[in-house]
Amino acid sequence: MKRLLLLGGSRYLIPVIRAAHALGHEAITCDYLPDNPAHSYSDAYHDVSILDREGVVRVAQEVRADGIMSFATDPGVVTAAYACERLGLPTCPLASVEVLQAKDRFRRFLQENGFAAPRSAGCGSVEEAVRKSGGLRWPLIVKPVDSAGSKGVARGDEPDQLAGAVQNALRYSHCGRLILEEFIEKLGDSSDSDCFSIDGRLAFVSFSDQRFDPAAQNPYTPAAFTWPSRMPACHQQTLTEELQRLLTLLGMGTSLYNVETRVGIDGTPYIMEVAPRGGGNRLAEIVSAATGVDLIQAAVKAAVGDPLPDVRQRPFQGYWGEYVLHAQTPGRFRALRIAPELEPFVHEVDLWVREGDPVRAFTGANESVGTLVFRFDTRQQQESYLGDTARIQRLVRVVAE
Predict the structure, then answer these.
(1) What is this structure's pTM?
(2) Which of 345, 340, 330 is nearest to 400 (CA)?
(3) Which of 36, 42, 273, 358 has the fewest CB atoms within 10 Å of its CB?
(4) CA 330 to each of CA 53, 333, 359: distance values in angstroms, whole numbers, following the listed order
């Protein structure tokens, strides 16, 4: 039996805990929020912030951890790499993880190494952002450099929108920094899906079609995903080659990654983000169900140094989709209503709230109230229901009062 220390306590850690238990290992959780849902599934909980690097090292030493992982939790990724490096546990290089996790450093690394990347500037204040925005082409996307789940992300189409967007981004940044980057108008849908490398070589790559809810309070929060992606094979191949070049340059080892990409209207494929962790929104779970490649089990085994399962490229079996359940307006949850015509395609309903629980407007992934997973027989069925978020919202309603 080995012990896996998991940084965070969100519900996205529950399948990781189950995977560890299925392998005969203990799973221990650690963060500063004792009411987080994953703690009731773990073997033990320690009340230490995942941003407290030395505190996490002490916990790992106390529990004699064989591995440390931050899954679907961006703030803990660098801490996990730091603690693993300190304790000689399996990890990718801390310096490389720090590049991937800080959006301003990552953009700079891409540009310095000849990757296609939007022009950008890192900033720490409204005044600095105003000054640096003069060298960029509008519209701009404003993001915290160290936040995830689309929290604090906004688009500015003209200079008078910049100050408010910067102040909002800074509220969500742990280190008090943000990035301005030129907005890349996309051709088709962007992609957000999970990949896996073994000893620095990509063993499994996946792409999705990412859909958004333009009526949401934050229209840059993903509302739905479909697999396999409709992105042309030539662009998928280019992105796969560039991802491999990136991992090689950074000296990455064995890891699960959440990868965001898009193709610009000029036909240029862009790597937008590569986080050495599993993605939120249950992406690894759905990709695993759709392909038979158990990414979560592989991530657990990699973290504790176990021999890896068979991780290799496999095709998607059928056409899959996920709809992120969310409310359009705040209130108290009353019901989830799914139109009967959708029922033959529902693979799983995962509802996280009960009647009377508070729900909030959809400003980030943390405000979702569950997921619906679909399996379709044809691409036409998939696109009919998930290709238009307006239609799926008529067929799936989160009723709140």
Answers:
(1) 0.95
(2) 330
(3) 358
(4) 36, 9, 5
What are the φ and ψ backbone dihedral angles of 248, each rounded to 5 degrees?
Answer: -65, -45
- Can you tell me which residue has the tokens 């546990």? 89
Flag whether pLDDT at 291 surpasses 70: yes
**149 confidence band (pLDDT: 50, 70, 90):** low
Q: What angle do CA 327, 329, 330 make, to 5 degrees?
A: 90
What does the DSSP 8-state code read for residue 306? P
Give the single-character DSSP code of 146: T
Q: Which residues have C-beta within 8 Å of that of residue 361, sequence separation ≥ 6? A: 216, 217, 327, 328, 329, 330, 367
- The string of pLDDT tens digits covering residues 19-70 is 999 999 999 999 999 999 999 999 999 999 999 999 999 999 999 999 999 9
Distance of CA 35 to the CA centre of its chain: 22
**63 phi/psi in degrees, rounded to 5:** -90, 0
DSSP strand pairing (120-123 vs 178-182) = antiparallel
Residues 344-357 as b/e (b if ≥16 CB within 10 A, e otherwise) read ebebeeeeebeeee
